[in-house]
Every structure is written in C-alpha cells, then in structure tokens.
Amino acid sequence: MMNRRSMLKSAALAGAALAAGTQSVTFAEDIPAEPIYSGGTPWADLLGWKVGCQAYSFNRYTFEEALQKNASIGLRYIQMFPGQKLSKEHADVAIGPGMTKEQRYWLKSLLAEYHTVPLSIGVIGADRGTFEFAADLGLPNIASEPAFDRLKDVDKLAQEYGVNVALHNHPKPSIYWDYHIVLEHIKDLSDRVGACADTGHYIRSGINPLEAVKALKGKIKEFHFKDLHENSRGGHDVIWGTGVCDVPAILAELKEQNFKGPFFAEYEYNWESSVPEIAAGMKFFNETAKELAK
C-alpha cells in the first residue's frame, strides 16, 4: 500500500501498478474511505470504452484530490468541470479557460503525475475561449448547453478547433432535456456536434435511458453515466447495476452500436464518501464488459 507522499517519490512504480490493476493506490490524508475495488476497467478498454470520473463527483475537493480518488479506483481518464480549485497548493486557481499559461502547465503537470488523460470538460460555455482551452489540453470533447440560435456558430468553432461538442441533458426544463430535441437541432450540423447522454437525468425527466441511447445511435459523443435508486425526479445515485437504469441492457446496446467513446461516472450522492460506491460500480461495469467481449 502506498500513501500519497511515497507515490510522488515513486511515480513510475505507481503508474505501472495502476496500469496493471494489481495494486490499490490510496492517499490516506485525502480519501475518506478506501475503495473496495481498484482494478479499473480493462475489459471496457478492449471494447473501445474509456471510463473515468466526472470530477464534479468530487466537487467538495480540489482537482488534485479528484485525480487521487480517480486513480485509487484504477481509472486513467477524467472529465474536468469548470471552477474546481486546482489543488491545495494553488487554491486560488480555478479550472477553465481563464487559466494562464503557467497555471495550465501546473494542471498538465498534475495530470501527468497521476497518469491521467482528460477527455472532456463540462458542463461549460461553448465560446472561442473554451475551444482554445480544450485544444490546448488535447480534449476530444466539451460538454455544453448552448442556446439553439448559437448552434451553427458553435459547430463552426468545433470544426475550426477539432473539438467535439456534446449537448448535455440536464433535467426538464433544461433546453436539451429530451433526446428528440437534441436530434432535431443537430440534424443539419456537422458530426462534430452530438450528445452528452446523462442516463440519470433521462430518468429524472421521465425518459427511458435505453430508449434514448437507441434513438441517439451514432450521435453520442460521451456519457455522464448514472444509475438511480428509483424512477423519479428525486432518484439518487446508486452503485451501477443496482438501480433502475438497466445498465447491462444499455451496455449491450452500445456494443451493438459499436460505440467508441468515454463514460464518465458522475456520482452525486454521499459526496464525501462516494469512492467505495463508485469503485463497486466500476467493478460491475468491468465484469459486464467482460461478458460482452465474449
């Protein structure tokens, strides 16, 4: 078992352990509960699915602490969220397009230190500054909810910077709450604009997430993946596979669609002790992916 300070002194060794999924890496002074699973999602990798956490799951903590928690489960990918404080050392620095060149270097250094690849940022505005920031970090996607009348301009920026825009479905009355609305507004746009499918928010809006995933075939850029304890607007996050979202059916459908893209765990429950529950969900996800890979 390695604590945070010893990891920083032995980064290469920790990285190898994470990649192999053979050692649980925890950071006692930062993580309130040790994960029950630290093997990551290697079977999902084989299906072309890149799985990590949306850093908003750890919004009570700094981005560095979010990286620590993500790595403790054996995950190598993350979605950033704007406004999160960079670290305890740089508590006055917020993640986002307003970061200076030096601050972005600090951010990139942390990502390298924890062997983590950022794949998206969101939910965030879709102006030129956001696209420039995403391109600088090498992000494939941004998750956003731009006004309908801005979509053509957003599409042009997406093509200019080579960064996808994933339209996110916050619950009703958010403007993209219904996947039909997303499909209607992207039909005349380039393939750079698609959906950030939030499975939990579909439930909260009275939509079957499996139905949404089927309808959005070929248009999904990324997932905010959730499972909820009940079919209601008040449903809260639970360990993947134990709730009402029918996670196995969704994953089976995505394999049939040959979906290749990121899944971000956005766990909005038990905020200060969610790591074991997220880890248990990752174990289920990996085992389901293994069965699908057969």
Count helical runs.
Answer: 12
Order of helices and strands: HHHEHEHEHEHEHEHHEHEH
Spatial strand arrangement across the major sheet = 3-2-1-8-7-6-5-4
| Category by helix and strand content | alpha/beta
Q: What is the strand tally?
A: 8
Mean pLDDT: 91
Instruction: Give the termini separation.
Output: 33 Å
Could you name the CATH class?
A: Alpha Beta
CATH topology: TIM Barrel
> What portion of the residues fall into strands of 2 or more residues?
5-15%
Q: Domains counted in the coordinates: how many?
A: 1
Shape: globular
CATH fourth-tier homologous superfamily: Divalent-metal-dependent TIM barrel enzymes
Judging by the overall fold, what is the CATH architecture? Alpha-Beta Barrel
Topology of helices and strands:
Elements: H1 4-9, H2 11-20, H3 42-46, E1 49-54, H4 63-72, E2 77-80, H5 101-113, E3 117-121, H6 128-137, E4 141-144, H7 151-161, E5 164-168, H8 179-186, E6 193-198, H9 199-204, H10 209-215, E7 220-225, H11 247-257, E8 261-265, H12 275-293
Parallel strand pairs: 1-2, 1-8, 2-3, 4-5, 5-6, 6-7, 7-8
Helix pairs in contact: 10-11, 11-12
What does this structure look like?
With 294 residues, the protein is an alpha/beta fold. It has one domain: Divalent-metal-dependent TIM barrel enzymes (TIM Barrel), CATH 3.20.20. It has 12 helices and 8 strands. It has helices spanning 4-9, 11-20, 42-46, 63-72, 101-113, 128-137, 151-161, 179-186, 199-204, 209-215, 247-257, 275-293, and strands at 49-54, 77-80, 117-121, 141-144, 164-168, 193-198, 220-225, 261-265. It has an 8-stranded parallel beta sheet. Helix 10 packs parallel to helix 11 and helix 11 (247-257) crosses helix 12. The longest helix has 19 residues, at 275-293.
